[in-house]
Amino acid sequence: MTVTDSAPRSRADAVRHRLGGRSLNEIGLLAAIVLLYVVLGSSAAGFLSLDNQLGMLRDAATIGIAAWGVTLVIIAGEIDISVGPAVAFASVLVAKGAAEWGLGVAPAILMTLLAGLGWGALAGWLRARFDVPSFIATLGVWSALGGLGLYLTDALPVVLPESGLMTVLGGTILGIPTPAIVMIVLFAVFAYVARYTAYGRSVYAVGGNPAAARMAGIDLARIRVLLFATTGLLAALTGILLAARLGSGNGGAAAGLEFDVIAAVVIGGTALAGGRGTMLGTLLGVAVITVIGNGLVLLGVDSFLQNVIRGVIIVVAVLVNVIITRRARATRES
């Protein structure tokens, strides 16, 4: 075989390999989103209205901002289940700081972001220093922050003071919800970091083969602390935006958000075993979860039954994830 003959074949193999794994999942998700829009647009009254679409953007931001960090965590072979209570506690913290502790709005926001970094870094440190499984470390954070949020407020909302900054954060910019703009900006940042930086490559390496990554000189402890500190920061940011949207902090807010976030990441094609996943896939997963949730509400499906449907979606997503992973592995070996 000549060099000129092998080049087209190599390109064809590369295309076939890509379609056999990651891109196949993303194409499938795009098709699913289009199908959902067609079905819900014809069966759910008001689904295609501008107000509903803008509302879905807000809902997507609540899931998506946290999902960018959780994507990297799962790619690294870890898990973070603390997102829901962390978001709720952050909303309480910013409201308490601004309304009752006399900090003012801007310092309360800064305090909340730093606190998010702190509790995330703590979970990462427990994982890195003592080899505590990330599920257990973040379960501890889940329980502690959930309890603190309710304790500090007696399970009652804490009303935010009037603030132009909070009005902007909870409102719109040029007609687009501010949280959605924040979500898209952060998506671009995280997509770049994951694909084009040494840190991003290290995350994939750690998830693919931790022992080999350590031998290659990658500081596993540093990567893990940074990963969980990032998810803590993003959860705190989500809590601030949620408080601005609701006009108050609430220890009972964002219940079950962690499941929507993890479902979006898994539906997006990120392997639970680590080493594989993309931000684009997660973005599409966020869209699927948001559209389904919105459609179920508009169709009048019972709220308890909605949880059943979400559970089925998560299980099916994991099964599809496993099938695609096996197919991609078989394609590489053939």
Automatic annotation (TrEMBL):
CDD domains: TM_PBP1_transp_AraH_like (cd06579)
Name by which UniProt lists this protein: ABC transporter permease
Transmembrane segments: 27-48, 60-81, 101-122, 134-153, 173-194, 225-246, 252-273, 280-301, 307-324
Membrane topology, as annotated: Multi-pass membrane protein
UniProt KW keywords: Cell inner membrane, Cell membrane, Membrane, Transmembrane, Transmembrane helix, Transport
UniProt-annotated location(s): Cell membrane
